[in-house]
């Protein structure tokens, strides 16, 4: 049974200018956002916790979030410990021994979608991902960029759920000029171009608005769809782009 894969717009500038410095403890404060996250993430919520219990949980968890965040390189894509472990079994062992790994990834997903990505609207990437759906020419530029979006070998999605990967504004712009990498192979498979055309239109929207793209897999949609939407592109502006059924609004 496949996973639920989704593609979203991503404010890369805000991510690197505001989000990652806050996650590293270099600016701002995570307390308010973490409490809001915890109320939806923790089984039973937080209403029954005594104030001292809540403060203790917040202090410990945020210190762990900052600690883990500082284990990434400047791109925030390469975890200096996890990505240097070559054995899959040893990677599992490392994650299993880190009790805050899953909570960090859940908070990272929540924090991304609260401030620099919209859960809705999104493009469903099918159960098997974009490479399966779009089938670009191998070794083409379009193929290489999709491979970045399909990179599951990372700290954020090691358990199969959460943020898979993202691409920069520059990569998104390059992707918008790679139509031939997809259409030349796509045309002989069948004559239904609706998904490919919708995907390229989504890339165009990102490019026009100087945004990147971010991939998720089995994200916690019941929480993310309650966050503020249309932060990156106003709802009315979507009417200027002619999408078919490929774009999903929630």
TrEMBL record:
The lineage of its organism: Bacteria, Pseudomonadati, Bacteroidota, Flavobacteriia, Flavobacteriales. It comes from Aquimarina addita. This is Uncharacterized protein.
């Amino acid at each position: 049974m496949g996973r639920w894969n989704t593609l979203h717009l991503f404010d890369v500038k805000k991510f690197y200018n505001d989000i990652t410095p806050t996650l590293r403890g270099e600016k701002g404060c995570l307390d308010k956002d973490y409490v809001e996250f915890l109320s939806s993430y923790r089984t039973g919520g937080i209403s029954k916790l005594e104030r001292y219990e809540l403060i203790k949980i917040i202090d410990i968890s945020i210190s762990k979030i900052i600690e883990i965040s500082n284990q990434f390189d400047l791109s925030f894509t390469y975890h200096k410990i996890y990505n240097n472990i070559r054995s899959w079994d040893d990677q599992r062992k490392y994650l299993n021994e880190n009790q805050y790994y899953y909570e960090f990834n859940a908070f990272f997903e929540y924090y991304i979608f609260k401030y620099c990505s919209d859960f809705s609207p999104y493009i469903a990437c099918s159960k098997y991902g974009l490479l399966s759906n779009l089938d670009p020419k191998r070794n083409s530029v379009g193929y290489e960029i999709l491979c970045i979006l399909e990179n599951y070998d990372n700290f954020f999605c090691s358990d199969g759920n959460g943020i898979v990967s993202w691409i920069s504004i520059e990569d998104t712009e390059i992707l918008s000029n790679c139509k031939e990498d997809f259409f030349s192979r796509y045309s002989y498979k069948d004559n239904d171009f609706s998904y490919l055309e919708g995907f390229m239109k989504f890339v165009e929207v990102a490019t026009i608005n100087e945004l990147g793209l971010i991939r998720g897999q089995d994200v916690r949609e019941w929480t993310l769809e309650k966050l503020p939407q249309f932060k990156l592109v106003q709802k009315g502006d979507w009417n200027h782009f002619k999408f078919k059924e490929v774009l999903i609004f929630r």
